[in-house]
Design goal:
Gyrase A, domain 2; four-stranded antiparallel β-sheet; 4 strands; binds flavin-adenine dinucleotide
Length: 227
């Protein structure tokens, strides 16, 4: 899988801090932007996190190019509905000639890998038979597997990213979307290190786990803390 941050709000941290500062200031955002120095931005962002004042985070957006994830992974990804936009390679308009596929590590042992490759090759063959028979690509794709590789562009605002990282960097998330979330987190930390200093699974950022009985045990669960 390849993940690259291809664009983002210019000065994301300054914009978020200015939007937040505006709430507590007689000044307008233009004046705040002109006069904010980097230390003030940093202090303000830290204060926001402390207060749980999250809505200013919605003013900064980040756009990622993601290549080589499976359709199983993209299906989980697009369940995130709020503050997020997706554009995904279409299987209606782009025929899956020689489709690539993701092989999970658990299937990489010799015999299983062989079986898996055979199933993929069979599906490719059947798909092409359907196309040759005149079945439109939008219908022939029904035989394609979840493993089939896809490309997608994702734009998320910083608030939604924090939520996404909390759910998907967690050990409980499935391995492929967890890998994707971790790569996205590494990308945004490069351009907005303060904004994403405390981003990730709640065990890492808050020292608490919300997964209850499903917890991996890295951090105490809410129930354990309440004992
Ligand atoms: C470990 C794990 C296991 C999962 N297992 C399953 C599974 O077995 N089956 C399955 O179907 N899904 C499963 N999911 C997906 C999960 O249910 C969510 O659909 C997905 O994580 C998106 O999260 P979200 O709804 O919080 O995000 P978003 O859609 O981005 O929503 C963000 C927040 O906005 C609020 N919100 C959004 N829409 C509404 C609404 N309609 N009404 C009220 N509030 C709203 C909620 O507070 C929500 O948390 C799993 C996710 C994880 C992380």
């Amino acid at each position: 899988m390849q993940v690259k941050l291809i664009d983002h709000t210019q000065n994301p941290e300054k914009v978020v801090a200015a939007a937040a500062r505006l709430c507590y200031s007689p000044l307008g955002a233009m004046e705040i932007m002109d006069n904010f120095v980097p230390e003030q931005v940093e202090n303000f962002l830290a204060k926001l996190t402390e207060l749980g004042h999250d809505s200013p985070l919605e003013h900064a957006s980040f756009t990622f190019a993601v290549e080589g994830i499976s359709r199983a992974c993209s299906h989980q990804l697009v369940r995130h509905r709020i503050g997020v936009s997706f554009s995904q390679k279409s299987q209606r308009y782009v025929k899956e000639k020689q489709f690539e596929y993701v092989v999970p590590k658990s299937i990489q042992k010799k015999d299983q890998a062989k079986l898996f490759d055979k199933v993929m090759a069979d599906l490719q063959k059947q798909y092409e038979i359907l196309l040759v028979a005149g079945v439109p690509a939008e219908d022939a794709r029904y035989v394609l597997p979840n493993a089939c590789v896809t490309n997608i562009v994702i734009t998320m605002n910083a608030r939604s990213l924090h939520h996404f990282f909390r759910l998907r960097c967690c050990e409980r998330a499935q391995w492929e979307i967890r890998e994707l979330a971790n790569l996205m987190l590494a990308e945004v930390q490069q351009v907005a290190p303060t904004l994403f200093a405390k981003a990730g699974a709640s065990c890492e950022t808050e020292g608490v786990c919300y997964e209850g009985k499903m917890s991996c045990g890295k951090a105490p669960t809410i129930a354990e803390l309440q004992k």
